[in-house]
């Protein structure tokens, strides 16, 4: 080809490139930048300043491993896709760019990249099972196939208990690889040690994934075998919203399962079973919510020194549900728990109205899931219910559960303060169970802190460890909150907890939960505190 024609074709190629990209890079075989043209976007003073630098040197640390896998795919001529990569900038936060690449047969060893700033387009990283499920449902609606893949490594799951640091490093390597074969390089979630979920990019085979992950595991001297399977989700019986919720439940259940349960054959059967259970539970949930098919039982919370009932806790009871625990977990995992929480609040308000007509004005604590309370729509509807029954607000306490699911800590604390300003008392539930972080306890306003039964029994029984109990007593004192000890079964439990600093108790010693319990105005037997715990002083 004559030089003039060659120059014309080269200029045309560059023109086409700049039509879609604003920075062009050429990498040599070692991924060092040997050509740069276009705007530098403060990655360097100018495009020329990038010459001679390894591509890794301009990539934000979180994306280095991911980009390495992407570049390898480009070099191997595998199906390519534009992916989002964060690049470092001088003295400024990293900037996301959309990156595409290709090789040209006439220039062996060279890799060509086109970059464009990803302005105004938020990252779609699937940071949770629910986000991954939402993305799968959207893809299913658009293309008919969610391409949702789950992967389990038994060896990595077992390593997590023995060597967390090594597990974290291997997990990061596997995550980076799976991002490179996920849709848009964005949709992959670490579900649990050794377990992953991702939306697969087009053209990526099972064999490629299994071999690549096996290589990472082998390099870490771990057993390379793993289990990989794809979910083909038939949502014909569900609308798109319910389909996403059922998928979220399925992914969560996979994350909780033991890796040893997932052989190649039983995995497929388990998926079918989980999907079937999801459909069944979804139908049950709809019945509960549309027909109000639940019963509210009440259990006393007693001031142990006097035997006086301070308030009742409202507990949901369902008919026709084989496993209430699985049903509640499904409601939480799928997001329907918001509707359930509001339904219980409404029913309790109605019962308080009825009680008031007979001259009885008991206080009732209603559970609000941490998964519910972060939603703006839920918050608005809850406030509306309170406004409708403004004269009953002082009788309605809110007990925050599932605090481990709370990510919006500041806004949640602000909303709880708003509820408190309306006259509602606030209680933090299951404290000490391991699911509530110290940061959460310090941030959330609370009039009451409820100690998990495991803490109570672990400290009150002979030879028990009382360190955690004492720490939580000190924490409650610092917040100005009263302690409620749950699962009080014996007078010995009650006596210990009262001596140690818990003013209130809840458990079978004072009465079991029942729909009729709220009508009972009688006192419980006062607890004879007697001597002090700890050999010298009472911790309250």
Automatic annotation (TrEMBL):
<protein>
    <submittedName>
        <fullName>Diguanylate phosphodiesterase</fullName>
    </submittedName>
</protein>
<feature type="compositionally biased region" description="Gly residues">
    <location>
        <begin position="531"/>
        <end position="540"/>
    </location>
</feature>
<dbReference type="GO" id="GO:0071111">
    <property type="term" value="F:cyclic-guanylate-specific phosphodiesterase activity"/>
</dbReference>
<feature type="domain" description="EAL">
    <location>
        <begin position="278"/>
        <end position="527"/>
    </location>
</feature>
<dbReference type="InterPro" id="IPR001633">
    <property type="entry name" value="EAL_dom"/>
</dbReference>
<dbReference type="Pfam" id="PF00563">
    <property type="entry name" value="EAL"/>
</dbReference>
<dbReference type="InterPro" id="IPR035919">
    <property type="entry name" value="EAL_sf"/>
</dbReference>
<feature type="region of interest" description="Disordered">
    <location>
        <begin position="520"/>
        <end position="540"/>
    </location>
</feature>
<dbReference type="InterPro" id="IPR050706">
    <property type="entry name" value="Cyclic-di-GMP_PDE-like"/>
</dbReference>
């Amino acid at each position: 080809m004559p030089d003039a024609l060659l120059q014309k074709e080269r200029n045309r190629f560059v023109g086409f490139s700049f039509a879609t990209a604003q920075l062009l890079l050429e990498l040599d075989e070692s991924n060092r930048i040997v050509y740069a043209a276009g705007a530098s976007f403060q990655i360097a003073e100018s495009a020329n300043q990038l010459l001679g630098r390894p591509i890794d040197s301009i990539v934000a640390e979180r994306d280095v491993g991911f980009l390495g896998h992407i570049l390898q795919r480009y070099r191997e001529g595998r199906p390519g896709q534009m992916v989002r990569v964060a690049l470092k900038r001088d003295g400024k936060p990293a900037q996301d760019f959309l990156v595409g690449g290709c090789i040209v047969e006439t220039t062996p060893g060279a890799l060509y990249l086109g970059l464009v700033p990803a302005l105004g387009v938020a990252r779609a990283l699937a940071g949770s099972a629910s986000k991954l499920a939402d993305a799968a449902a959207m893809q299913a609606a658009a293309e008919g196939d969610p391409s949702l893949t789950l992967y389990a490594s038994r060896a990595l799951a077992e390593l997590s208990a023995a060597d967390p640091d090594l597990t974290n490093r291997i997990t990061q390597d596997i995550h980076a690889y799976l991002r490179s074969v996920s849709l848009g390089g964005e949709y992959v979630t670490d579900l649990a040690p050794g377990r992953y979920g991702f939306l697969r990019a087009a053209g990526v085979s099972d064999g490629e994934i299994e071999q690549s992950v096996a290589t990472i595991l082998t390099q870490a001297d771990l057993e390379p075998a793993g289990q990989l399977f794809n979910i083909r989700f038939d949502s014909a019986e569900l609308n798109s919203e319910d389909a996403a919720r059922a998928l979220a439940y399925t992914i969560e259940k996979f994350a909780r399962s033991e890796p040893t349960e997932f052989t190649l054959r039983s995995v497929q059967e388990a998926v079918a079973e989980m999907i079937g259970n999801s459909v069944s539970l979804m139908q049950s949930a709809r019945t509960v919510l549309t027909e109000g098919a639940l019963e509210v039982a009440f259990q006393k919370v007693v001031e142990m020194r006097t035997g006086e009932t301070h308030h009742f806790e409202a507990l949901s009871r369902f008919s026709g549900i084989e496993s209430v625990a699985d049903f509640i977990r499904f409601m939480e995992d799928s997001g329907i728990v918001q509707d359930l929480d509001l339904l219980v609040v409404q029913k309790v308000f109605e019962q308080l109205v009825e009680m008031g007509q007979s001259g009885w004005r008991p206080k009732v604590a209603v559970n609000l899931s941490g998964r519910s309370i972060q939603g703006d729509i839920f918050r608005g509807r809850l406030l509306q219910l309170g406004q409708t029954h403004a004269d009953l607000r002082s009788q309605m306490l809110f007990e925050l559960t599932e605090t481990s699911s709370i990510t919006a800590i500041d806004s949640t604390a602000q909303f709880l303060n708003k509820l408190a300003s309306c006259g509602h008392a606030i209680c933090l539930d299951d404290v000490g169970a391991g699911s509530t972080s110290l940061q959460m306890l310090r941030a959330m306003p609370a009039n009451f802190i409820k100690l998990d039964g495991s803490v109570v029994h672990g400290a009150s029984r002979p030879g028990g460890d009382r360190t955690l109990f004492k720490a939580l007593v000190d924490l409650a004192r610092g917040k100005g909150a009263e302690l409620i000890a749950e699962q009080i079964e014996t007078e010995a439990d009650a006596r210990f907890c009262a001596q140690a600093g818990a003013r209130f108790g809840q458990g079978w010693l004072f009465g079991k939960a029942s729909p009729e319990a709220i009508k009972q105005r009688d006192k419980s037997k006062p607890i004879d505190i007697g001597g002090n715990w700890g050999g010298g002083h009472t911790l309250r």
